[in-house]
């Protein structure tokens, strides 16, 4: 009888440790997210299940072209790509990204841009300098984000979203794990 009691106690202890470890991992290290909507197409698809690295930005600051998950509202998280960093200016002109007046290649959109009909652009012209609701320069502790699907994305160009503070960032989306045919690292 004592052996059975000991065995049950061991199982209960193992289960509690597993639950505690799962809680710690999900709360502080990694968590799942499901991409909702078309704003990150073609690189991320509606319904993609991803793993978010929550510890990366506790140790480092976001880098250009990182795919980040952030609290857009109290109840909703968004997933977008970091384009501008603190101290920089962002401008889109003739389908070219300019950071501080210098052109920057967006290789993750090369195919989409090349498929545009003559005279059409993938990303409409935009300038922080001409914006009525953004500062001319990204302040410390903030980033400028865009969705990859530039014509269908609520991002930093929108007055309802604007710049994203580091405090809003949950983590960086690194791995697609479902559907299985899309398994792999996020296109960065």
From TrEMBL:
The keyword rRNA processing does not apply. GO terms for cellular component: plasma membrane. GO terms for biological process: signal peptide processing. Its EC number is 3.4.21.89. Keywords: Hydrolase, Membrane, Protease, Transmembrane, Transmembrane helix. It comes from the Bacteria. One of its GO terms (molecular function) is serine-type endopeptidase activity. The chain crosses the membrane at residues 12-35. It catalyses: Cleavage of hydrophobic, N-terminal signal or leader sequences from secreted and periplasmic proteins. Residues 9-178 form the Peptidase S26 domain. It is found in: Cell membrane; Membrane. Its main location: membrane. It is a single-pass type II membrane protein. The active site is at 39, 80. Pfam families: Peptidase_S26 (PF10502). Belongs to the peptidase S26 family. This is Signal peptidase I. The lineage of its organism: Bacteria, Bacillati, Bacillota, Bacilli, Bacillales. The gene is sipS.
């Amino acid at each position: 009888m004592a052996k059975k009691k000991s065995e049950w106690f061991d199982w209960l202890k193992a289960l509690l440790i597993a639950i505690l470890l799962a809680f710690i991992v999900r709360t502080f290290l990694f968590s799942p997210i499901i991409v909702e909507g078309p704003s990150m197409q073609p690189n991320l698809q509606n319904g993609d299940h991803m793993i978010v690295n929550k510890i990366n930005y506790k140790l480092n600051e976001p880098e250009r072209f990182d795919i980040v998950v952030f609290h857009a509202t109290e109840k909703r998280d968004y997933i977008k790509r970091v384009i501008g960093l603190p101290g920089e200016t962002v401008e889109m002109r003739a389908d070219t990204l300019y950071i501080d007046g210098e052109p920057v290649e967006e290789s993750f959109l090369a195919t989409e841009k090349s498929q545009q009909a003559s005279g059409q652009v993938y990303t409409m012209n935009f300038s922080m300098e001409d914006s009525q609701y953004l500062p001319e320069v990204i302040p410390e502790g903030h980033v400028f984000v865009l969705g990859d699907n530039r014509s269908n994305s609520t991002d930093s160009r929108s007055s309802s979203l604007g710049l994203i503070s580091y405090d809003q960032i949950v983590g960086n989306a690194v791995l697609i794990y479902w559907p299985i045919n899309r398994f792999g690292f996020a296109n960065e």
